[in-house]
Amino acid sequence: MRRAPAALALLLAAVPAAAGCEGSGRDPGTVKIVYQDFGAFRAADPLFRRVKEEFEAANEGVTVELHPIEAPAEDYQTQVNLMNRSPADAPDIIYEDSFTINQDVDAGYLHPLDEYWADWEDAEFYSEQADAAVTALDGKRYGVMLGTDTRGLWYNSRLLEEAGVETPWRPEDWDAVLDTARELEAELGDGVVPLNVYAGTPAGEVSSMQGFQMLLAGTGDALFDEEEQKWVTGAQGFTDALEFIGTVYGEGLALDQRDALNANVATLNNDERIPDGEIAISLDGSWVTQSWIESGNRPWPEWEEEMAFAPMPTREGQEPGAASMSGGWTLAMGAHTADPGLAWRVMAHALSRENALEFAVEGAQIPVRSDVADSEEYRERSSIVPEAVELVGVTAFRPAYGDYPRISLAIQEATEQVVLGEATPEEAAAAYDAEVAGIVGPDAVTGG
Amino acid sequence: MAGETTARRGAPPALRPGPAARVLPLVPALFLLLAFFAGPVLWTVWASFTDAALTGAAAARTDFVGLRNFERLLTDPDVLDATVLTAVFLVGSGVLGQTALGLLLALLMQGRRGWVRGAVGGVVVAAWVLPEVVAGFVWAAFLEREGTLNLLLQAAGAAPQSWLTSLPILAVVLANVWKGTAFSMMAYSAALAEVPVDLKEAARVDGAGPLRVVWHVVLPLLRRTVAATLLLVTLQTVQVFTLIFVMTGGGPGGRSTTLPLLMYREALGFGDIGYGTAVGLALLVVAGLFSAVHLRTLRPEEVR
Fold first, then answer.
1. Cβ atoms of A332 and A34 closer than 8 Å
2. Would you call B43 and A18 a contact, using CB atoms and an 8 Å cutoff?
3. How many domains does chain B fold into?
4. Which of A15, A202, A256 lies nearest to residue B252, judging by beta carbons?
């Protein structure tokens, strides 16, 4: 009994120590960069290796510490958040999805960049659109865009021509997409998957964004009503998008259920199935060419002749005729950085024209710096197709709110039920509506 | 209690080193235990009453939310599904699979030649020694569409299976039986060696066949071992995470999401640490209930 107070005191001392809350233990001469290096996306690694080498050579006594994380986007964010929770481990520079900036600002993980931005001579090359994406709800700037993307239909011209489809292929509406897929199925037989649309929970955000939301964007409906600040339920467009997915999988136009419900389906598609000529049309990101260029996972120089890009049409071909979703990755500064000035200098180095150009080429990104986008060198070396760049005009973004990851999972579940034939699109949409009301509360939903 | 008497006996401070000096050697171990065991456990309990989160405003300022996480726990259909799946996984792979198979193997190996025991034991224990991640990959590769099992089925002219997607809970139960049987087998082998030979002889002289000998003589003597092994297997099985995560990721459609996977999804996938830790405590309740059942039903009776 007498020992109890001592034990308690020890315990109280141990808890914060275990949680890593005491003492920062940060070295002001070290800049820690954390970034994703996973699947087909390998462009960040060479970028930061170059930055490390160049910056350390030019600045004696400074160490640039690289922390590549090999994990899909969701797990990557979890790991970065875990690092951010501990001031001693928190990174100084974060390769950050623009979409999570608001949450991380609320959590106190990020350092505002306004004072550095104001003095940065290259700031003029960034558009207002890119500025908006990195400005949080508190009006401050927390990141600098590295690159952006769009989404649409990649198709294999050789396969389409073989099946007697006229190329360049420009479907006008959803029915035209489905008709072509049926034609391909009839002409090309079992060896070729006519149309890939991601769905189901294993592929995670890929299903939600490249799959479902690309369809929803073409219906005029949205997940979130920005005016009312409420999540939308009971939208006809939601059911229609599920209907499209149900048709594609129900008629056997898509990958086998087992292949579609595989966590690595996107990597397998772009590194293997498409170069092997096993997929005719794939609804995917503008960046997929990064797998096929020389530095990619599966160099495939013939892609330029075989693969072409068509915008994803809207449901009935209504204005603006095409739909796209966009994301964008940024560089952000960690709130616990010991020397923000130094961290900014490293960031600015990574964002320089030369580095931005290399990153855009290797990562098949749509560059944000206008002096890169407009340069002859970029146009010559980039694997991005002009049709994909044009979609920047019609593209939509995901609702950047804390509830989104759960909403996205509810979407993935709805698509999975439809793929497995466990629910009709109407039933799956109704289940989604109930799920959303449960997630955000009945007061935060509209419609239905 | 033994500790208390020792403490009292060592009371005269003048003759022996003071209590501080005696406690001192314990400090490092005590510190480690408190820091890495008691600390996290208490922190988990505390977190389950808060809205602690990985990101968002709640990460900057964590608030006490009372019983909200537990209210949600009771009404969340995912928790109910995960609890049922955890029970299925536990009964299927832990109780029926590992224990029954382990006991059967131990009985069959009794009195066999050395090399037979060595070979069978080696194979079974090898599965146990494998890291969970490796075992998960091995099983995923085995059950996959173009995996070994389907090639074998194809060669035999049978229809291919797709359990990883169609019946994921069966797939993970099979894998866990394969992986974990060694523990029960070794425990029962050791216990069987302790069963006195003359008891079995006496039963045989009385005219009992081998099955009756096992049922009426050997099993009653193994009661304590069965209780202890079942308890350990239960505690091990309810917390299996890696194997399931590697094989199915909890899917498809949450059909293999047991409580540990649900806990991971809520706490780390969605960053809702408060709710995730509440799910963790629910897991503790499930494990506790099953352990209590084992202990009660297998309470050793007085020797007849």
1. no
2. yes
3. 1
4. A202
Please give the structure tokens belonging to residue B243. 């194997």
pTM of the model: 0.80
Model confidence over B145-189: pLDDT tens digits? Answer: 778 888 899 899 888 888 888 889 999 999 999 999 999 999 999
Say if the Cβ atoms of A2 and B19 lie within 8 Å. Answer: yes
Looking at CA atoms only, how far is residue A327 from chain B in angstroms? 20
Q: Which residue has the tokens 């075989």?
A: A306
| Domain match, A58 and A143 both | yes
Give the structural domain span for A36: 28-149+327-389
**Of B99, B63, B111, whose CA–CA distance to B210 is shortest?**
B111
Last residue of a domain, one of A366, A389, A412: A389
Residue B254 counted as domain residue: yes
Residue B265 forms part of a structural domain? yes
For residues A181 and A301, state if they share a domain: yes
- Residue B257 domain boundaries: 77-297
Q: Are residues A403 and A255 in the same domain?
A: yes
Decide if B270 touches A, using CB distance below 8 A.
yes
Q: Is A405 on the interface with B (CB under 8 A)?
A: yes
Q: In the predicted model, what is the mean pLDDT of residues A369-381?
A: 89
Q: What is the pLDDT of residues B102-137, one digit of tens each?
A: 999 998 888 788 898 889 888 888 988 999 999 999
Q: Is A202 on the interface with B (CB under 8 A)?
A: yes
Q: Yes or no: say if A181 and A281 are a contact pair by the CB < 8 Å rule.
A: yes
Q: Does A21 touch chain B (CB under 8 A)?
A: no
Whether residue A359 contacts residue A47, with contact meaning beta carbons closer than 8 Å, is answered with: yes
- Tell me the helix, strand and coil percentages in chain B, rounded to 5: 75, 0, 25
Helices (H), A71-156: 73-85, 101-106, 114-119, 128-134
Asked if A223 and A307 sit in the same domain, the reply is yes
Tokens of B248: 């199915």
Is the minimum CB–CB distance between B41 and chain A shorter than 8 Å?
Answer: no
Per residue in B47-104, pLDDT tens?
999 998 888 888 888 889 989 999 999 988 889 999 999 999 999 999 889 999 999 9
A4 in B contact zone (CB under 8 Å): no
Domain count, chain A: 2
CB contact under 8 A, B38 and A200: no
